[in-house]
C-alpha cells in the first residue's frame, strides 16, 4: 500500500508517521510530502530514510491513500488532484468538513457512511472528535437536546509557533507571537478567528461538525473555546441536556463499554482525566460524570484527549485502516 503523508514535517504529520508505525500500517511505500522548502530533506520511518518530495511529484506516484495535514488552502488545491489520480485523501484541515458531498468521519461513530466513491474524506476538528466520542453513545440512548461546552485547549493545536512562544515566555525571552497575548499564566478565550456572530471559528466547528457527525441537526451546541498553556491535550467541560431520563450509573456503563473511551471517574481518590496523563495515548478520557441538579435530565462531565493523536493523527489513520478493510481487500 503506497501512502503519502502531506505535511510530513509538521507537528501533526510527524504524529501521523508515529501512529502509522505504532499500528504497523501495511504500507509498502511511504511518500513524505512537504512544501518546496523541505523537498529533499530526509525523514526516517521505521529505521529507513525517505526523501521529502513535492506535491506534484507525490501525485504522479499515485499513492492509494494520502493523509493530509497541510492547511486548508493546500488541501483545497491538491486533494482534488490526488483524487483525480485515484488516491483517497483523508484531510485533517477544515477545508472539506462542512462540504455536503464529503463525509466527516470518526470511525467508531460513522465509518460505515464511507463508500468507494469517497475519494476525499474529512477528519473532524480535534475538539469535536473527543466531544462526539462521548456524545454519540449517549445520544443513541437518551436523545440529546442541548450541549454546552467550554474547552481548555492545548497550545499544540496552534502548532510549533505557539509552543515556541510559551517556551520563550518561560525563559523570559521575546519572540514571534502565535497569540495576541502572552499564554504563560494566562487563558485566552480566542481559538482561531472571530466571526460575525461573535463566536470563533473553533466554537462554530464544535457546533456544526457535531450536528453533521451525529446526523442530527436538532442537537443544539453552545461552545466557548479557550486556549491555555498546556501541551498534553484538550480538556472539555460539557453539560448535556437529554430528552429522556437517565441513571448516572447507566451513563457510566455505556461510556465504559464504548470502544475508544476510558473512564477515569473516582473523585474520592483524586481520579479524573488530565492532559498530563492523556498525552501520548489514543483514547478519549472521561470523568467527573455527575447529574446537573439544576435541570431535568441534565449531566456534567469532563473530557480529555491528546489532540494530536485521537484529535488528529490517530483518527486519520483509523479511517485509513477502515478503507484498507473496506476497499483494498474487496
Ligand atoms: C486548535 N483545533 O486547537 C484547532 C486546530 N488544531 O487550534
UniProtKB/TrEMBL annotation:
Protein name, per record: Aspartate-semialdehyde dehydrogenase
Pathway: Amino-acid biosynthesis; L-threonine biosynthesis; L-threonine from L-aspartate: step 2/5; Amino-acid biosynthesis; L-lysine biosynthesis via DAP pathway; (S)-tetrahydrodipicolinate from L-aspartate: step 2/4; Amino-acid biosynthesis; L-methionine biosynthesis via de novo pathway; L-homoserine from L-aspartate: step 2/3
Lineage, opening ranks: Bacteria, Pseudomonadati, Bacteroidota, Flavobacteriia, Flavobacteriales
GO BP: 'de novo' L-methionine biosynthetic process; diaminopimelate biosynthetic process; isoleucine biosynthetic process; lysine biosynthetic process via diaminopimelate; threonine biosynthetic process
Enzyme Commission number(s): 1.2.1.11
Species the sequence originates in: Psychroflexus sediminis
Protein family per UniProt: Belongs to the aspartate-semialdehyde dehydrogenase family.
InterPro entries: Asp_semialdehyde_DH, Asp_semialdehyde_DH_beta, NAD(P)-bd_dom_sf, Semialdehyde_DH_NAD-bd, Semialdhyde_DH_dimer_dom
Residues that coordinate or bind phosphate: 97
Entry-linked CDD domains: ASADH_C_bac_euk_like, VcASADH2_like_N
Amino acid at each position: 500500500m503506497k501512502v503519502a503523508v502531506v505535511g510530513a514535517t509538521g507537528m501533526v504529520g510527524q504524529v501521523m508517521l508515529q501512529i502509522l508505525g505504532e499500528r504497523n500500517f501495511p504500507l509498502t511505500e511511504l511518500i513524505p510530502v512537504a512544501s518546496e522548502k523541505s523537498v529533499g530533506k530526509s525523514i526516517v520511518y521505521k529505521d529507513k530514510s525517505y526523501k521529502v518530495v513535492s506535491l506534484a511529484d507525490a501525485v504522479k506516484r499515485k499513492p492509494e491513500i494520502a493523509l493530509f495535514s497541510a492547511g486548508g488552502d493546500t488541501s483545497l488545491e491538491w486533494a482534488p488532484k490526488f483524487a483525480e489520480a485515484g488516491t483517497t485523501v483523508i484531510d485533517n484541515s477544515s477545508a472539506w468538513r462542512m462540504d455536503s458531498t464529503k463525509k466527516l468521519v470518526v470511525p467508531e461513530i460513522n465509518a460505515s457512511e464511507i463508500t468507494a466513491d469517497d475519494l476525499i474524506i474529512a477528519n473532524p476538528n480535534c475538539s469535536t472528535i473527543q466531544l462526539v466520542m462521548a456524545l454519540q453513545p449517549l445520544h443513541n440512548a437518551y436523545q440529546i437536546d442541548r450541549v454546552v461546552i467550554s474547552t481548555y485547549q492545548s497550545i499544540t493545536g496552534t502548532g510549533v509557533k505557539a509552543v515556541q512562544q510559551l517556551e520563550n515566555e518561560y525563559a523570559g525571552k521575546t519572540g514571534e507571537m502565535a497569540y495576541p497575548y502572552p499564554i504563560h499564566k494566562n487563558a485566552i478565550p480566542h481559538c482561531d478567528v472571530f466571526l460575525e456572530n461573535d463566536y470563533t471559528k473553533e466554537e462554530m466547528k464544535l457546533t456544526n461538525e457535531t450536528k453533521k457527525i451525529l446526523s442530527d441537526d436538532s442537537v443544539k451546541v453552545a461552545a466557548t473555546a479557550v486556549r491555555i498553556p498546556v501541551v498534553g491535550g484538550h480538556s472539555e467541560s460539557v453539560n448535556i441536556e437529554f430528552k429522556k431520563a437517565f441513571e448516572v450509573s447507566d451513563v457510566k456503563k455505556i461510556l465504559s463499554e464504548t470502544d475508544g473511551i476510558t473512564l477515569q471517574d473516582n473523585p474520592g481518590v483524586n481520579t479524573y482525566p488530565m492532559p498530563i496523563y492523556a498525552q501520548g495515548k489514543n483514547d478519549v478520557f472521561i470523568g467527573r460524570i455527575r447529574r446537573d441538579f439544576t435541570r431535568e435530565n441534565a449531566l456534567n462531565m469532563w473530557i480529555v484527549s491528546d489532540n494530536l493523536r485521537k484529535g488528529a493523527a490517530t483518527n486519520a489513520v483509523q479511517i485509513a485502516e477502515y478503507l484498507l478493510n473496506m476497499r483494498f481487500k474487496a
